[in-house]
Amino acid sequence: MSNNEELVYLNSDGDDSDSAVLETEVISKEETAITEDYEPDSSELDDDADAVGVYEFRPVLNTNVFVTGAHESVMVLIGLNEKQTIHLSGIFNLQVVKGGIVYNGVHYNASREYMSFSHPLTNAIPEIKASYHAGWDEPLYLTVKDKKLVDLNSLEKFVCILKVTSSRANGLLDLGSLYPDANSLWVPKTNNRNSKKADFASFSILDGIYQDEFISQKNPADWQTVIDNLFISFKNQEYDMRVMVIGGKNSGKSTILRVLQETFMNKTILNDDGTTFKSQEDILYIDLDPGQPEYSDPECISLTQINPTQVPSLGQHLAQTSYTKLQQHYYGSSSPQDEPSLYLEQINDLMKYFDERESMGTTLLNLPGWIKGFGMTIVNSVIRLFKPTHIICIDPSKLDSELQIPLEFSNPFQLNYKPIIYNINSISSHSKVMQTYQPRFNAIQIRTTKMLMALHRMRSTEFDQLKYDFTPLLLQRPIRISFGSGSGINGIQFQQDYGDLGDDNIRGALEGTIVSLLLRREWNDVPNENMENIVSVTKFPVIREKIKASNLSYYSIALIHSINMEENFINIYIPQANLDKIIEKTKTMNNQNSNDMNNCRYSWFISRGKSDTPFCEIYP
Fold first, then answer.
1. pLDDT tens per residue across span 69-91
2. Who contacts 246 (Cβ-Cβ below 8 Å, separation ≥6)?
3. What b/e readout covers 360-394, taking b as 16+ CB neighbours within 10 angstroms?
4. Is residue 332 within 8 Å of 609, Cβ to Cβ?
5. Each residue of 31-58: pLDDT tens digit?
6. What would the DSSP string read from start to end of 122-139?
7. What is the CA radius of gyration of the chain?
């Protein structure tokens, strides 16, 4: 290695500079696993998933890493050789300016378009693998401005060149100021220790120095075979396609569904007639895991419509998307075992809504990892309701013997079809490292992170841009809503049986807690439907009888600040992102309720489950 080459830890931090090249922090050879340049021969390649990757990228400033710009306009060019792999954490935009890449089994060609990535350190990080350009030419998609900032001769030797820029995080990186555990959510602790904090510091190159800070996502070989087969079915489907995954906790259910979704929506193939195929269809996602949701609000289950976007969104987004939730139920706990009857009732209502849509397309379904005892009863119920065309069983030998998959199904589009069943290994079965790896974030920290993101999400004028303000809620002004018969909040229900509580105890059970704001439907002409009578012995409109899931529509989670008993109002924090639709719905339903021709009337309703209030909101 020549004397003018510096081994660096590279992230997107930077200082003001008149120079085109930012200052970067030099990491000594003793602090990093990076060694002298080394080209292995084929005899040294190891097929073991735990073997050190001989093609792993090692950043060297001004040799294979070129940094230009400052602050929000920072640009990092990364040169990769054939088959070389790189891991990036954080939230960032990536453009392949030369060659191509393979990400989760999908090839992406160099183009003028960029992709949006979300790689939090809560999960294993997928590798980005260098590949060639799938075409006759070998273009270099750099703008005229970019070309003036780098020496083009230094880029010629690379098979693949990536352009990485900071994403428009819009406040998301400030979560650590409220919740310190999230300081290393996007960037490793090692970087935080040695680097200056900057508003655009949204990503990091992960090399040997971070081997204890992250783990590479290594998918079992049999996964790709199944994904390829499912993509063929997806491409050639004549009717609807319904895919569900069954497996235990941490087996990789969410991961393989995420890879499937990315493959279905982004894979481009060349047809025999010379045309290309890339799907432009929506995908439905049924998310039935309230503890680790992919798309639902915290401790909810949902049906989400995923639309093709101009900018592909890849990676683990921590349930922070702008996709439309067609229906959502607040379950109020991270574990289906807490209230299994309520959980099953909400599933039944969600699946009924799904059936009534008669969606002619592709639907993916994610289940929690409860596969023993009554959990398998729920799995069998979901199978009967969903009527899958394809079932993926992870580690089938560990599934309960009571798993029941009917031989045939029928739905509005297909008669008497047999489900195709795939048996695959868990994501950790082939890797000793993944089996013994201790995640840097535990389940409680991840749930707290998602709850805080949901509470502090702001309204945005752009569909694909999310905004956040992590100012502690106690430092913000709550919304005042009256409660009682004919008031803003017409009903309050505790999912747990609190018995006959008095006013003071009810207030104490609500203040400082997370609740859900729901819209309740009551039928005017069917008296027997209204079994949920309000208890009048207290000032609060507490409802004892459980309300049917079909008569409740979820609108938002909220945090109750305080309750004024004299004037009958609640001070409550509602995420700004949800406030406009709540106000608009209030206006609409007031007009509907005043119309005697309607068969039902609507009112706002609060449900208190078991959701934990983040401690940092109470004591910021």
1. 765 667 899 999 999 999 999 99
2. 253, 367, 371, 379, 391, 392, 393, 394, 399, 403
3. ebbbbbbbbbbbeeebbebbbebbebbbbbbbbbb
4. yes
5. 222 222 323 333 333 444 444 455 788 8
6. TSPBPPEEEE--SSSS--
7. 26
